[in-house]
Write a structure and sequence with these properties.
203 residues, Ribosomal Protein S4 Delta 41, Chain A, domain 1, Structural Genomics Hypothetical 15.5 Kd Protein In mrcA-pckA Intergenic Region, Chain A, 2 domains, 38% helix, globular
C-alpha cells in the first residue's frame, strides 16, 4: 500500500486517536468513526487482531511509512539484541523527516518530508534530500540560508514535540541529535508490544 494522500482527519477518526505527525487537526467536532451511521452506530469491542492492527496503523500513519517500509523497521528491530519495542521507536524517531518535525521546522511529518525532498535541509552542512535518512548522535540538522523563511509559519504556530534528545536552536534553525529516544517520548498513545505481535504472525 502506498503512502497516504487522502483525507487525514478521516484516519484520525477511524483510529480514535491523536497523531501529531500526521495532522494538527482535531476530531473534537466529530468524535466518532467515519461512516454513514455517524455517532448512532454502536462501537463493537475489537478482536485481538483488530487491536494489534490498530496499533500498527497508528505507527504507519503517524510516521508516514508504507507497509513495506514499516515491516523492514520491525524486521531490523527483531534482529537487535536490545528491547525490540524501544529499538522500533528509535529507528522511527531518528528519521530525518521526524527530527525536523520534532524540532518544529515542519508542522507535520509530511510537511517536514517536503522540506527535505525539495532540497531545503542540510545535514552536517551538506544538502540532504532523503527523508528516511537515519540520524546518529552528533548529527546537525539545519535549514539552508536561502530557505529560512519556509519553517517560520510552523515555528510561529508552536509546532514540534517534547524532545530531550535534541538540542534545538530555533533562532538559527538548527537541531543537534544528542541521544536516542525511547517509547516514553512517543507523542501519542502506543503499545509497541502489539505492533510486534502483529508482525510476528506474518514475518
Amino acid at each position: 500500500m502506498s503512502r497516504l494522500t487522502g483525507p487525514r482527519l478521516k484516519i484520525l477518526r477511524a483510529l480514535d486517536t491523536r497523531l501529531p505527525g500526521l495532522s494538527r487537526k482535531s476530531t473534537e467536532k466529530r468524535p466518532f468513526g467515519p461512516g454513514q451511521h455517524g455517532p448512532t452506530k454502536r462501537k463493537k469491542a475489537g478482536s485481538p487482531y483488530a487491536l494489534r492492527l490498530r496499533e500498527k496503523q497508528k505507527v504507519r500513519f503517524n510516521y508516514g511509512l508504507t507497509e513495506r517500509a514499516l515491516r523492514r523497521v520491525v524486521e531490523e528491530a527483531l534482529r537487535s539484541k536490545d528491547n525490540t519495542g524501544q529499538v522500533i521507536i528509535q529507528l522511527l524517531e531518528r528519521r530525518l523527516d521526524n527530527v525536523l518535525f520534532r524540532a518544529g521546522f515542519g508542522a507535520t511529518i509530511p510537511a517536514a518530508r517536503q522540506l527535505t525532498t525539495h532540497g531545503h535541509v542540510l545535514v552536517n552542512g551538506r544538502r540532504e534530500t532523503i527523508p528516511s535518512r537515519r540520524l546518529v548522535r552528533g548529527d546537525v540538522v539545519s535549514i539552508r540560508p536561502k530557505s529560512r523563511h519556509l519553517p517560520l509559519s510552523a515555528l510561529e504556530s508552536g509546532a514540534g514535540a517534547d524532545s530531550p534528545w535534541l538540542v534545538i536552536d530555533k533562532d538559527a534553525l538548527v537541531a543537534t541529535v544528542t541521544g536516542y529516544p525511547d517509547d516514553a517520548f512517543v507523542p501519542f498513545e502506543l503499545s509497541p508490544r502489539l505492533v510486534i505481535e502483529h508482525y510476528s504472525r506474518v514475518l
